[in-house]
Amino acid sequence: MLFSPSMPYRSLANENLLDVLRLIRTGNVGPVTFFQLISRFGTAAKALEALPHLAKAGGKKTPLVAFPKEAVEHELEAATKFGARFIVYGSPDYPALLHMINDPPPVITVSGHSHLWQNRDLIAIVGARNASANGCQMAQKLAHDLSENGLSVVSGLARGIDTYAHRGSLLKGTIGVIAGGINNIYPPENAPLFQQMRETGAIISEQPFGALPFAGSFPGRNRIIAGMSLGTVVVEAALKSGSLITARFAGESNREVLAVPGSPADPRSKGCNMLIRQGAHLVESAADVLQAIASLRNRSFAETPPPGYTTETPPAIDTSELEKARPYAHEKLGFTAVSVDELIEQCEAPAHLVLTILLELELAGRLRRGNGNRVYLLQQEEFA
Q1: In contact, 219 and 114? CB cutoff 8 Å
Q2: Residue 234: C-alpha distances to residues 131, 182, 187 (Å)
Q3: What does each C-alpha distance from 68 to 20, 74, 282 come to in angstroms?
Q4: Interior/surface letters 141-179, b for 16+ CB within 10 angstroms, e for the rest
Q5: Distance from CA of residue 291 to its chain's centroid?
Q6: Using CA atoms, how far apart are residues 194 and 188, in angstroms rounded to an integer?
Q7: What is the pLDDT of residues 12-48, one digit of tens each?
Q8: How much is the pLDDT for 2?
Q9: Which parts of 108-234 fold into alpha helices (H)?
């Protein structure tokens, strides 16, 4: 088993689901901030109580109001009527490998069958929306052959490569991760496929029920696709394709990156060819994928948990020391991203104090988190 509940993770399985949803749905609270709050205050309920004070300390002029309980109750009711359920981080049916990324979603909404990731290894297949006929055929055959070899195929239910990857693995159960709410079918022409996947496969979302996809939700969707999977296969991708973001997430999570080569004359192949030059596995058939991920199928990812998600209680905050550290941390921050580790080193302050200051600024809407554990300040007009 790739994830064991006995490992030192801060499971949310015993938390009140209403409190978990209220916390993650609150403005300025993302997955990293969510888990830092849980680590600092012990429970979602206590974290909710602390939000106004933390945001005020970070410079927020108006009180930070937690997401309303009534709105969460309405979401729970609507999702249940739709036939979906909520799965929290640390519960037995949460995707095992998703526990191991640096910013796992605290809760996902699922419609369909969780046994597809509980009993089978996962492989992601992604690619261009404006895919060629050959690319679509390749994606469908790869997905079919890999599903016949005991893998569940994960993709993003987009046009092009994603659609054909799902079609190829539909009979064995395929998993779609979407950027909107669990009931939001996009693109509309995939409505029949969406319904088939709910019956034989699964649909996953971290967005609230009814939410429309937005620009920032697609990279978040891509990190889940890569984070669930042993590896990510890119079939066709331009140099600025979102599929390359999925591949990057896979590499950052120590999963395999694989790509199907293509003609240098086709812009849709330039991203794949670049990945291969950078060391991605070249894929011509399902056999190449199976060989590339063979070692990962026997590896326990639970041996290398992500930083920051343990059950260890952080040191108590000394208010006077926190006051002293704030000016140094604020001075070192800028509008260009800096790694949190570098910031802690330059501030010459205990890590838990610097992390608390970053938490305050983020809850105040003055700071954003970027890739690779990096942070930066927002321009005044962005949070005013």
Answers
A1: no
A2: 12, 25, 20
A3: 12, 10, 49
A4: ebbbbbbeeebbbbbbbbbbbbbbbbbbbbebbbbbbbb
A5: 26
A6: 9
A7: 988 999 999 999 999 999 999 999 899 889 899 999 9
A8: 38
A9: 115-118, 133-148, 161-168, 191-200, 217-228
Q: Which of 274, 269, 268, 213 is nearest to 248 (CA)?
A: 274
CB atoms within 10 A of CB 195: 11
In the chain, domain spans: 17-87, 96-303, 319-383
Residue 46's CB is within 10 A of a number of other CB atoms, namely 13
Q: Hey, which residues does 54 pair with through a beta bridge?
A: none
175 forms beta bridges with 154, 202
Helices (H), the chain: 17-25, 31-41, 44-57, 69-82, 115-118, 133-148, 161-168, 191-200, 217-228, 242-252, 267-277, 286-293, 319-332, 340-347, 351-363, 380-383
Distance separating alpha carbons of residues 203 and 114, to the nearest angstrom: 10
Q: How many degrees, rounded to 5, is the angle at CA 188 between CA 186 and CA 192?
A: 105
CB 103 within 8 A of CB 38: no
The correct answer on CATH 3.50.50.60 for the domain covering 96-303 is: no
Tens of pLDDT, residue by residue over 87-102, are 999 898 999 899 888 8
Residue with tokens 């019956």: 199
The model carries a pTM of 0.92
Are 96-303 and 319-383 equal in CATH topology?
no
* Helix axes of 31-41 and 351-363: crossing angle, nearest 10 degrees: 120
What topology is assigned to 319-383 in CATH?
A: Arc Repressor Mutant, subunit A (1.10.10)
* Residues whose CB falls within 8 Å of the CB of residue 227, separated by 6 or more in sequence, listed in order: 95, 97, 98, 100, 101, 104, 249, 253
Question: What is the per-residue DSSP string for 97-126?
Answer: GGGGSSS--SEEEEEE-THHHHSSEEEEEE
CA–CA distance, 203 with 154 (Å, rounded to integer): 10
Choose among 177, 291, 176, 175: nearest CA to 231: 291
- Residue 311's nearest CA partner among 1, 2, 4, 12 is 12
d(CA 33, CA 114): 27
